[in-house]
Amino acid sequence: MSQQPTSASGAKMFKVAFDLDAEKPNWPPVSVERLWGEKTEVKFEIRLLNTPFFARGVAHGDLIQVRPDHERRELVFDHFTSESGHSTTRVVLMDTEAGSEVETRLREAGCSWEKSEQFASLLAVDVPPAVDYRPLREWLRALTADGVIEFQESAISSIHRGQLPNFPKL
Q1: Please, what sign has the CA dihedral across residues 168, 22, 60, 143?
Q2: CA-CA distances (angstroms) from residue 8 to 23, 28, 88, 125, 142?
Q3: DSSP state of 106
Q4: 100-128 pLDDT, tens digit each
Q5: Which branch of life, at top level (predicted)?
Q6: Residue of 9, 56, 110, 133 with fewest CB within 10 Å of its CB?
Q7: Sign of the CA dihedral with 50 first, then 53, 55, and 59 last
Q8: 87-162 to CATH, choices 1.20.200.10, 3.40.630.30, 3.30.1380.10, 3.30.70.80
Q9: Domain limits, the chain
């Protein structure tokens, strides 16, 4: 019998299912994304422990409420509770030769990312609260204009929105 995994803080970790709506034909390429999270002291509250590839509106460290789905035998995302200050962007490498350069620049900016073998050209980028998002965003937009990448802002924290004077307010 396998033991329940625990996070670095010692809390029990759980997979949380995020049901995804189609944004366009064939996107996202999956209907459900499962993210790791750890229990908090609040009933059915989870702190996310990884960066989503497809789920919108959530980032690493955010607090969410889940509900048990007994038929599916899993926890399912119910609603967002509070942000962690982290932001999530997705980068799609249109020019795979640029992957190393993009990763180096993201690392220098203080970001981390996740990759998937299934979606090799996709990076799920975690932008921590201490990162100055304005120059990072300008660089990502320039690469997009040059056709090197496409990027999507999935969850931009209030910290990072505050660094962008013309960013749409929530």
Answers
A1: negative
A2: 35, 31, 21, 21, 37
A3: H
A4: 999 999 999 999 999 999 998 999 999 99
A5: Bacteria
A6: 9
A7: positive
A8: 3.30.70.80
A9: 13-82, 87-162
